[in-house]
Amino acid sequence: MVLLACLLALLMFVPAVPAFAEGLNDGRVLFGEDFTLESGEELDGDLAALIAITICLLPMPFFVAVATLAAVLFGWTAVGLLVGQRLLAALKVQETNQLVAVLVGVLLISLLTAVPCLGRLFAVVVGSLGLGAVVLTRFGTMAYPPAPAPVASAEPGETG
């Protein structure tokens, strides 16, 4: 509804829009006079390549969004496993299963994200931690990169 109101306001205040739309109809505005398509004409090679690339890459944002969502959920589960293992160790549970640790950790994280004011911030932090872990380990196919060793200073220390 808001978009419709904005378009009507555009038509009221910018009188050149209908003329531009008329030029779109015969191809003069988008492609210039050389690319107007009449019966029997063929597309230029560059224009055909541009249209093919545009059409073939159209579903890419959807695939990227699905991959990002999968990575965030995978990371959420990994953070849930870590939190669950730490919580079960703190409660001194003797025999722990990874599935139980994941369920406990994800349940705790989900309860904390339901807090009215800080829950969304906590969800963003946990999601970012999980996404970072997933990216660094490439969905768990590589070992987590080790921390760099501290560099010893070449200067002798002051004794006081």
Task: Characterize this entry briefly.
By secondary structure, the protein is mainly alpha-helical. The protein is built from seven helices and no strands.
3D structure, described in words:
This protein has 160 residues and is mainly α. Helix content is 65%, strand content 0%. The chain has helices at residues 2-13, 17-26, 28-31, 45-56, 60-90, 98-113, 119-137. Helix 5 (60-90) packs across helix 6 (98-113), helix 5 crosses helix 7 (119-137) and helix 6 (98-113) packs across helix 7. The protein is extended and about 70 Å long. The termini are far apart.
Backbone CA Rg: 29 Å
Number of helices: 7
Terminal residue distance:
74 Å
Shape: extended
Summarize the amount of helix as a percent range: 55-70%
Indicate the mean pLDDT. 75
By DSSP, the count of extended strands is: 0
Share in β-strands: under 5%
Describe the sheet with the most strands: none
User: Residue ranges: pLDDT <50 for 5 or more in a row?
Assistant: 17-25, 27-35
Which structural category do the helix and sheet elements fall into? mainly alpha
